[in-house]
Amino acid sequence: MRQAMFDAEVGDDGYGEDPTVNLLEEKTSNLFEKEAALFLPSGLMGNLIAMMVHSNQRGSEVIVGHKSHILLWEQGGASQIAGLQLREVKNLVDGTLDMTDLRGKLRPECPDPHEPFTSLVCIENTHNYCGGSALPIEWIDKLGKFLKERNIPLHLDGARVFNAAVSLGVPVSRIVKHCDSVTFCLSKGLGAPIGSVLVGSNTFIEKARRVRKVLGGAMRQAGIVAAAGVYALDNCVERLADDHSNVKKIAHAIQQTGSPFVTVNPNSLDTNILLVNITSPNFDAKDFASELFKVDTDAHDTILNKIRSTTVRISQINDTAVRIVLHKNITQNDVALVIEKIKYVIGMIEPVDNHNSSV
């Protein structure tokens, strides 16, 4: 990938003259079977641009899930920058939206003057805070058709949509068939150092290109970073299955400890994200994450010291949950060390039954 970046042919993308950026955008639009694509610095910018383009006027309302990244982790950019209002709909455990709740929160096509317009519905696939779940294709199809009847566009925050495609065993184009626009990240599981891509119709991308400019996302000789994206799409998609397999190994190891205080949902292991529940009265999620990250050894060359010297960085979700994410730089040896460190930390909460903790 770094060699591809070094060798990249570049031009001025401000004028649409960077051949590597153009190649990335063409490759992406073909993969997604959409008319056009736009290279961006980040997925957050992609979601914001999509909301701005789809919403014809300030004060419009965008429907999002209550556990969505757009709502929880994008700084309220819809209101802060675009003058849009986010309205929550309940996410079910698999990341889909509660359709009864959604129907009740869509504004009428010609709303009362007191009401905003519903300008857009956003979904997330895979769903971060629902344990990396891959949304059922049939549900996305049904939602897209339902919204089209009401002239409301559907945007997919597909930061990890290639993980969903690999997990479901389908082309990414099948997942997004009924989505009007999609954002996906090159810099997560695909392993590029920077970049996201927004896809949609020619008209949508033409408008998005203009919004990208005012948000500071237009770049000049961007082929250097676009080359990493081209490499990722050509070489790093199928190997996402390795990350999914590694998540299952870690989840299985946690289950095998038999701990009542550290648990996982065995039915939520679709992709490369693992949510771990921490329910000890004296050891919360912050403690769990801190102990996994901590290096605590003495001078002796022992197996225990090797485990204790392993640093594992995970994210605390709240007081009772942490998130573990696997990626292309995590080797099988790393996974084995992670498992041993997790078992060691679980043993700090309570003694681990060594008979049950084999992996």
TrEMBL record:
Q: Name one GO cellular component term.
A: cytosol
User: Which GO terms fall under molecular function for this chain's record?
Assistant: L-allo-threonine aldolase activity
Q: Which residues form the Aromatic amino acid beta-eliminating lyase/threonine aldolase domain?
A: 1-274
Report any Pfam family annotated for this entry: Beta_elim_lyase
**Record PTM N6-(pyridoxal phosphate)lysine, positions in chain:** 188
Biological process terms in GO annotation: glycine biosynthetic process; L-threonine catabolic process
| Keyword check for Lyase | yes
What keywords does the record list, in alphabetical order? Answer: Lyase, Pyridoxal phosphate
> Per the entry, which co-factors are needed?
pyridoxal 5'-phosphate
Q: Which family does it belong to?
A: Belongs to the threonine aldolase family.
The name under which this protein is listed is Probable low-specificity L-threonine aldolase 2 isoform X3
